[in-house]
Specification:
Blueprint: E1 4-6, H1 25-35, E2 44-45, H2 52-58, H3 61-68, H4 74-80, H5 86-109, E3 111-114, H6 135-145, E4 152-156, H7 163-169, E5 175-182, E6 195-199, H8 204-221, E7 227-231, H9 249-265, E8 270-273, H10 282-297
Parallel strand pairs: 1-2, 1-3, 3-8, 4-5, 4-7, 5-6, 7-8
The protein binds zinc ion.
């Protein structure tokens, strides 16, 4: 069975090419996956929009209603970084539905990935930092509510700290949140995860991988995990516009391999989401995101 990949064409909300958020990376990632032979019909599933009842497990009901009605107050839209019109609203619902679907496919098949997701700055009360809904938090709470999982681990390796996920799941003892990120990156005011590791600027491949390799066994020992959500943000890359950790493509590949190999060796299902990545060279950026899928396909 090929790696199960969840994708929807409307993950791309069609922003202008010069927008600070590189929206065109979604179609370009699919092109990259097709070129690598990973996007055949037997590999792809299409999500439905997440219903309000799922979204309200993680977010304030009033905020969910605002997003669904495209009536988000301007002040919150400024914190998110773009206006929430019909396409952005649909995109947020689809990306969240996509992570829930990928999680279900991971539980069935051992591993699955969403070609979006990792919107970890969205807090309970509202979105922020290019994140409208927190897909991983929603998916975690859906799985718990349906008793599809009892213990959930979130491994967030996006270069930015997972403040929104920590905010939503701080009181949820069945979910453990781990974030390893650049100390000097957004958000300025971090919300403590269950475990945070803040790295200095310019950390580089060797030091990064050594640190991560030391932590994974610690995480495993904490509980019998039913599923791991892996945020494989590529903004740790040296050429990322927002990152400061100086990883290479080889470093990214070694990181993804280390995480997935670790949990799959223990037969723990892994649900991958792409997380952040910011570059004006969107083709190069899409190729960086494709690394997660290349590595994951070796474990499918
Ligand atoms: Zn990020």
């Amino acid at each position: 069975m090929p790696l199960q990949i969840v994708h929807h064409p409307d993950y791309d909300a069609g922003f202008a090419v010069n927008h600070r958020f590189p929206m065109s990376k979604y179609p370009l990632l699919m092109e990259a996956l097709s070129a690598r032979g990973l996007a055949g019909p037997e590999a792809l599933s299409m999500p439905r929009p997440a219903p309000a009842s799922w979204l309200k497990l993680a977010h304030a009901a009033s905020y969910v209603d605002q997003v669904l009605a495209c009536e988000v107050p301007e002040k919150i839209e400024r914190e998110i970084g773009f206006p929430v019109g019909p396409r952005v609203s649909l995109r947020a619902q689809l990306a969240t539905g996509g992570t829930v679907l990928a999680a279900r496919l991971a539980l069935l098949n051992g591993i699955a990935c969403n070609t979006a997701g990792g919107s970890h700055h969205a807090r309970r009360a509202q979105g922020a930092g290019f994140c409208t809904f927190n897909d991983v938090a929603v998916a975690s709470l859906v799985l718990l509510a349906e008793a599809a999982a009892r213990n959930i681990l979130i491994v967030d390796l996006d270069v930015h700290q997972g403040d929104g996920t920590a905010d939503i799941l701080g009181d949820e003892r069945r979910v453990f949140t781990f974030s390893m990120h650049g100390d000097r990156n957004y958000p300025a005011r971090k919300i403590a995860s269950d475990l945070d590791v803040a790295l200095p600027d310019g950390t580089g491949d060797a030091a990064y991988l050594e640190r991560l390799g030391g932590i994974l066994p610690e995480l495993t020992a904490r509980a019998p995990w039913d599923i791991v959500f892996y945020n494989a943000g590529v903004d740790v890359h040296a050429h990322d516009r927002l990152g400061r950790l100086s990883l290479s493509n080889e470093g990214l590949r070694a990181r993804d391999d280390m995480v997935i190999r670790h949990f799959r060796a223990l037969r723990i299902p892994v649900c991958g989401v792409i997380g952040g990545g910011y570059s004006t060279d969107v083709a190069a950026l899409a190729a960086r995101h494709a690394i997660l899928f290349e590595v994951a396909s070796g474990f499918a």
